[in-house]
Design brief:
By secondary structure, the protein is an all-alpha fold. The protein has a single domain, classed as AhpD-like, CATH 1.20.1290.10. Helix 4 packs across helix 9. The two termini are 18 Å apart.
């Protein structure tokens, strides 16, 4: 049960967006730009970064929601997502560049100051651009905020875990701004 009366029964961040639509719009726009906007990283790779940070933050809703969305957009699907979350980027079947970016995201999850010059250089050595490094840091920082927003207000998980996969299909199709037009339970 949420810590405050949200006036709706939506799960996770969706319930918070319904509660306070004026903050939902800029947060959805940020997610849209970071996870779906123009980038040399695929939407699936960016969703995987968001999932990895959310799993490290132990945010059940965000981990499940973004894992389903990443899996829907990655050729290796949920197998890869689960491998990254369980074993970390070192053991996962990801490109060396993505592994280096995931290590940066993991450092940001701990503290921005945990990112070392060596981490940045390692990503560059694997072909990461400054824009990819920037966006990885911003995705990780934004998801630290999103995770704390969801868990800090005690939002609920979906009653049916299969609902994450269904919601991810709408997200892949309509984007994060499409969330604003969806009913509470989706």
């Amino acid at each position: 049960m949420p810590h405050i009366d949200l006036g709706n029964d939506g799960p996770g961040i969706r319930s918070l967006f319904l509660y306070r639509p004026e903050t939902a719009q800029p947060l959805c726009l940020l997610a849209e730009v970071l996870l779906r906007g123009p980038s040399t990283l695929t939407p699936g790779e960016r969703e995987l970064i968001a999932t990895y940070v959310s799993s490290r933050n132990e945010c059940g809703y965000c981990t499940a929601a973004h894992a389903a969305t990443a899996a829907a957009q990655l050729p290796q699907g949920m197998t890869l997502v689960e491998q990254v979350c369980a074993d970390g980027p070192e053991a996962a079947q990801v490109t060396p560049k993505l592994a280096a970016l995931l290590r940066i995201a993991g450092a940001v999850q701990q503290s921005g100051k945990a990112v070392r010059a060596e981490d940045i250089q390692a990503a560059r050595d694997q072909g990461a651009t400054d824009l990819e490094i920037h966006d990885t840091v911003l995705i990780a920082a934004a998801f630290a905020m999103f995770n704390r927003y969801v868990d800090g207000l005690g939002t609920t998980l979906r009653a049916d875990p299969a609902g994450y996969a269904a919601a991810s299909q709408a997200l892949v199709r309509d984007g994060y701004l499409g969330i604003l037009a969806q009913p509470a339970g989706r």
